[in-house]
Design goal:
The protein contains 9 helices and 7 strands; from the N terminus they run βαβαααααααβββαββ. It has a single domain, classed as Glutaredoxin. Helix 4 crosses helix 7 and helix 6 packs antiparallel against helix 7. It is α/β, with parallel strands linked by helices and 233 residues long. The model has no long low-confidence stretch (mean pLDDT 92). The strands form 2 sheets. The protein has a 5-stranded mixed sheet, sandwiched between helices. Strands 3-7 form a two-stranded antiparallel ribbon.
C-alpha cells in the first residue's frame, strides 16, 4: 500500500509530522507492506534571495510577539520528537533547489533520507536552501553523485517531476503541508498525533487488502498542525 506525503523543507510541522508518522509506521504490524513516497510542495515560490524574518513574518501577519510564541512552541514540539527546530536560526529562502535534490533522491530511492538531511540543515544548522553549495553538501552527506546533482541543478532535470507533484497536490485539493494520502483514498492533514496516523494506517490497509473501491476520505482533525500557502502556521 502506498502512502504519499506532500511536504516543504521550510515547513516546521512537516519535520514534526515526518517523525510522528515514522513512529506510527514503526508500530504498524504490516509496515513492510507500506511504500512511502515523498512529494514536493512549495509553500512560497515567490521568495527571492534571503528574506529578513521580520519582513517575511510581518508580511504574513505575524507580530514579533506571535513569532516568539510560535518559535517557543516549535522548540518544545521538536524536543518531544528528539529533533531540533530553531526558527530564529533558519534562513528564509526559496526551496526549489532543495526540491530538485528531493526529486533526484526519489529517482535513486533515498527520499526519506534526503528529507531528514535537508530538514536538519534548514532548522538546526541554518543553511540557505537557495544556495547550490547547500545542495551539494546535502548530497555529499547522502552519498549522491556530484555529477547527478550538477545535472539536476544546471539542466532542471527534475522540473517536470516537481511540477507533477504540484499538479497532483492541486487535484487532491492540497493547500497546506504536511499532507498525507494513504492508498489514494484516505487524506490526513497536518502533524497529527501518532495515534491518528496509526488509526489511518490500520483503516486504509484493511480496505486496501479487501480491495474496496477508492473514494477519498478525509481523516484530518483540528489537532494537526500545518503550514499553508497563505503563510499560516
Amino acid at each position: 500500500m502506498k502512502v504519499e506525503i506532500w511536504s516543504d523543507i521550510m515547513c516546521p510541522f512537516c519535520y514534526v509530522g515526518k517523525h510522528r508518522f515514522e513512529r506510527a509506521l514503526a508500530q504498524f504490524p504490516d509496515k513492510d507492506k507500506i511504500e512511502v513516497e515523498w512529494k514536493s510542495f512549495q509553500l512560497d515560490p515567490t521568495i527571492q534571495g534571503i528574506v529578513s524574518k521580520d519582513v517575511y513574518f510581518a508580511k504574513k501577519g505575524f507580530s514579533e510577539q506571535q513569532f516568539k510564541l510560535v518559535s517557543q512552541n516549535l522548540k518544545q514540539m521538536a524536543t518531544e520528537e528528539n529533533i531540533v527546530i530553531d526558527i530564529e536560526k533558519s534562513i528564509i529562502s526559496n526551496t526549489y533547489k532543495a526540491h530538485q535534490l528531493i526529486q533526484l533522491a526519489k529517482a535513486i530511492n533515498c527520499t526519506a533520507d534526503v528529507e531528514e538531511v535537508l530538514f536538519k540543515m534548514y532548522f538546526e544548522e541554518g543553511w540557505n536552501m537557495d544556495d547550490e553549495a547547500t545542495i551539494y553538501k546535502a548530497a555529499n552527506r547522502l552519498g549522491i553523485n556530484h555529477e547527478q546533482v550538477k545535472d539536476a541543478l544546471d539542466n532542471n532535470t527534475y522540473r517536470q517531476a516537481f511540477e507533477m507533484d504540484l499538479y497532483e497536490a492541486q487535484q487532491f485539493g492540497v493547500t497546506g503541508v504536511p499532507f498525507f494520502i494513504l492508498d489514494s483514498k484516505f487524506a490526513i492533514s497536518g502533524a497529527q498525533p501518532i495515534e491518528h496516523f496509526l488509526g489511518g494506517l490500520n483503516q486504509a490497509y484493511t480496505e486496501w487488502k479487501a480491495k474496496q473501491p477508492k473514494t477519498l476520505i478525509n481523516l484530518s482533525n483540528t489537532s494537526g498542525e500545518s503550514c499553508d500557502i497563505n503563510g499560516n502556521c
